[in-house]
Amino acid sequence: xxxxxxxxxxxxxxxxxxxxxxxxWWVAIGLxxxxxxxxxxxRERAWSPQPA
Length: 52
Hints:
- There is one protein chain.
- The protein is mainly α.
- The relative contact order is 0.09.
- It is built from two helices and no strands.
- It has a domain at 2-31.
């Protein structure tokens, strides 16, 4: 919830500052690329159920 609020608030502030949503889009793209790079080293293993 905090991230949703902060994203909307920051988007509005950046729009007020620059008069365009272009900066907001570039920030969103940058965060998406950063998130993808951070998650690249994660190796998931298949889950096998154990009998009770």
